[in-house]
Amino acid sequence: MNTNKRSRLILAFALCSSALGGSPISATAQTISQICQPLVSAPQQVVSSAQRRAAGKIAMPPLTDPQNGFAWPDSEFGVLKSATGYAFFASDGGYHAANGKYGSVTRTEGTLDNPLGSAPPVDVIINPNLKVNPNYPSYTYLGGGRIYQVPPGNPGAGNLLDLYHAEINTNTSFYSLLGLAASSDNGATWTDLGEIIRLNQPYAANLAGFDLGSPRLVLSPDEKYFYVYFPDWIANGTTVPTTATIVSVARASVASVFEAAFGSAPHAARFAKYYQGEWNQPAIGGLSTDLNPDANFAGSANVAYSYFLMRYVMITDDTQSIAYAESEDGLTWTDPVLLGHFDNSQTSADYAVPIGTGPDPNVLGQQFDVFFTHGSPQGWPGNSVLRFSVTCQ
Question: Mean pLDDT over residues 279-304, rounded?
C-alpha cells in the first residue's frame, strides 16, 4: 500500500473518530494507570533513500515496477534474530508481475542500525491457494511482514507465519482485510492460508477507503491464544466509516492456528472478535467492541509484551503522530501518550512498530526502539527509514 495513500486514509479515519467520539460500541472505562514514563530520543536515520534505491537494483527476483521501484518498507517490520544479526520482513509495495498485485513479503538481513543490510533483498509474492482462499484473485494488494516463528514442540516448528494485509479496490480507494501465509523455507517462498479478519462493514464498490493496518500475532496473558489488534468499521448504513473503532481485537487458540496452518490440508484457523465482554463474533464480518474509545490518538496498532513492565505495550501511528499505551490483560488500555509528532504536511511517519533490543526483538525491555517509514514529498524515491529509542522511567 502506497504510504501517501495510507496517510490520507488514516488521517481521515482519525478525524472521523475524533469528531464522533469513536464507535458507539465501547469497552468499559479506563481503570489502569500508565507505569512507564517514556523518555524519547531524537529520530535517527537507519536506511537512506539512496540505500533503498541501491537495494532495489539487486533485489531478487528483479523488480517489475518501473514507477515505484523498491517501495520498501510498505508495512511494519517483522523482526527475528538470525545467525548473522537480524532478519527483517516487510512489504515491497511496488507492482509484482508474478501475481499481478502490489505488495510482497521482503526479507533483508541486517542490524538494528541498518535493517537493509548489504545482501540482495529477497522480494517474493504470497503464492495463491485457491482451495482455501477463492478471494485471492480479487486482491489488488497483498503483502506484509509481521512474522511469527513457530517454537519447538509444535506442529510446523521453525516455520514462519506472516499476518498479511490485503486490499480490494473500491471506486475511489480500497477495502482492506487480514490473512495468514506460511513459509517452510525461511521466507524464500510463501503460500496463502486464507483470510482471518474482515471489517464488520461488508465490501462494496462505492465504499470510502479503510485501512486495517499490518498488526502481528500477540500471545494472550495465558499464552493459549493469539490476539490480533485492528481498527474496525462498524456498519452504519452509509459508505463512510463514521462508526469506526479506535482498536478492536480478535483471537484464535494457538493450537488451532498451528494445526490448521501445518496440518494435512493447510488453511487459516477461525478467529473470533471480542464483543461486549465475550469472544462471540466471527472475525470475518462480525461486530467488535472498541477497547479504547476515548483515545486521543488512532491509527495502526502494533502490540508487543514488555517483561520489564509485565504489561503489553501498544504503539500507534496516524501518519503524523506516534503514540504509546499499556495494558495488563490486552483488553483494557491506558490513554495513549504522544511519543513523537510529525506536523509537516509534506512528510509522514508510517508503519511505526516497537522492536526490542534484547535476545528476542519481539519482546520489549526497559528500553526499546520504534522504527517507522519516513515519507517524503518526492514519494517513494525520497522515503527513508527512521527509528527512535524509548526508555521507561
Answer: 95
